[in-house]
Amino acid sequence: MPLGKQELLAAYRKMVTIREFEERLHVEVASGDIAGFCHLYSGQEAVAVGVTSHLDDDDYIASTHRGHGHCIAKGCDVIGMMKEIFGRRDGLCGGKGGSMHIADMSKGMLGANAIVGGGPPIAVGAAIATQLQGRGKVTASFTGDGGSNQGTVFEAMNLAVVLQLPTVFIFENNGYGEHTGADYAVGSADIASRAAGFGMAAEKVDGCDYFAVYEAAGRAVTRARQGGGPSAIECTTTRYFGHFEGDPQRYRAKGEVEQHRRAMNCLANFRQRVNAEDWLAPDQLDAVETEVRSLIDRAVSEARAAPAPALDDLCTDVYVSY
């Protein structure tokens, strides 16, 4: 057994929480009560949870515009997140960040980021700080296949190799950079081999298999903690919804999403593996799902009832004094 029973249950709980959170947001956004763009992470849960299973609150992650899953996987408060997305005063960022800018420094979550390819440079900066402080901590950045083409990402990877930083670059290849297929827009054979060209260890894994991600991330995080420098992991996965809520997805083949929900479902894959190995019983997994649905119901109810920011909040949080 790669993990203890409680660790397996915790991993499943986080993946289910991400799925239920996003599926519920898909419904809530349609009501018109959530302002701004919303990019859902459904389908990619195994990547966020597989990586962060090796990290603690003092390790850092840098996210993307599709950041809800990373936040939940890193331990951010689900009710606080929902309040933030609804723009409420007691949301994680005071209701000022919304869906694409959730951050929680107490959990090492450096923030979701609306800038494509904006996470890796931030992660490298954090890694320089922890390296200079001798803290033995690791920083992981999450980037999509579209973001993997950005010059900022190339510069970040090169600097990480030059300085041998404790960084792990996670590339979530869900097949589309917004509306453009990765097989067209990524010129190299794959993202992992291109990352390896910078001089770091790199591998490609099935991002719909929690255990494959967990094992690859374990190798990369251990390497970083022990001073072995950066690594890259490309996780092949899918997204069940559009690039953003409201995206008609005319660039996807007819029936593609339905087929992916059947064949590329990390939750079903997890259940099948743990049941086949007799690591967990089906009723234990069912109980987790019931608990999570109740949590999401409570999160939405509390978010809807919570107060909006006051007018006096308008000019706060603009500057930070160091």
Written description of the protein model:
- By secondary structure, the chain is of the alpha/beta class.
- It has one domain (5-313): Thiamin diphosphate (ThDP)-binding fold, Pyr/PP domains (Rossmann fold, 3-Layer(aba) Sandwich).
- The chain is 45% helix and 10% strand.
- The chain has 12 helices and 7 strands.
- It has helices at residues 5-30, 45-52, 68-73, 78-85, 119-133, 151-163, 182-185, 191-196, 210-225, 256-263, 266-276, 282-305, and strands at residues 60-62, 139-144, 167-173, 176-177, 180-181, 201-206, 231-236.
- The strands form 2 sheets. Strands 1-2-3-7-6 form a 5-stranded parallel beta sheet, sandwiched between helices. A two-stranded antiparallel ribbon has the order 4-5.
- β2, α6 and β3 (167-173) form a beta-alpha-beta unit.
- α1 (5-30) crosses α2 (45-52), α2 packs parallel to α9 (210-225) and α5 (119-133) runs parallel beside α6 (151-163).
- The longest helix has 26 residues, at 5-30.
- It starts with a helix and ends in a 17-residue tail after the last helix.
